[in-house]
Amino acid sequence: MSGAVFPFSLPRSQLILGGQKSGKSRRAELLARGWMEGEPGREAMLIATGQPWDDEMRERIARHRRDRAERVPGMTTLEEPLDLADCIARHSTPRRLLVVDCLTLWLTNWMMPAEPSPELASGWSGQCDDFAVALGEAPGPVILVGNEIGLGVIPLGSQVRAFVDALGGLNQRMARCCDSVTLMCAGLPLALKGPGA
Questions:
Q1: What are phi and psi of 101, to 5 degrees?
Q2: CB 187 within 8 A of CB 23
Q3: Which terminus of the chain is more solvent-facing, meaning fewer CB atoms within 10 Å of its CB: N or C?
């Protein structure tokens, strides 16, 4: 992937990882706001992968929408739980920044859907390959947000262990694809790759 840098030193592609409530989504939103304010006519779009499985998740999604509207006025939201490759290909433009939030829920939708589907599980590898290609070909900047969950105890249950392994593999692959990687901890960014690393 090219090392092209956009105005105000925004890398072409970024991966922001962190634990729950580490500040990763807020950092992505601040970068999106800076992008839009940097030059007239720029846009930002959030591609949300979360799905409202239950009342708590519906409230969480609604709260995130309210908070985002306050922090990043003008940022649009598109919900896409599965086909991120097509979404990136259709919506990336040189003047539109895309924020994908989050990779972890995207993987969950494929590997552990609310309604089990063998077709989804078997399609994950191809979708991941297609997404890596779409990310590399995106004409505009893309920020990926994901969870780092491999720092805790080894989970019980083969299905959960398989998910943790798959997420670790996804994070590593996206880190190789992206120009910049940041780890968030307690709201503070640690540069792992790219400027400041």
A1: -135, 100
A2: yes
A3: C
At residue 9, the pLDDT reads 62
Pick the closest to residue 3 from 18, 14, 15 (CA basis): 14
**Residues acting as catalytic residues:** 64
Spatial distance between the Cα atoms of 127 and 85, rounded to a whole number of angstroms: 7
For residue 156, give the DSSP letter.
S
Q: What is the largest CA-CA distance in the chain?
A: 51
Contact between 108 and 163 under an 8 Å Cβ cutoff? The reply is yes
* Sequence-separated (6 or more) residues with CB below 8 Å from residue 148: 17, 18, 19, 171, 183
Could you tell me the pTM of the whole model?
Answer: 0.90
C-alpha to C-alpha distance for 73 and 76, rounded to whole angstroms? 9
* Backbone torsions φ then ψ of 140, nearest 5 degrees: -120, 175
The answer to whether 48 and 101 are in contact (CB under 8 A) is yes
* pLDDT at res. 8: 55
Measured distance CA(128)–CA(158) in Å, rounded: 22
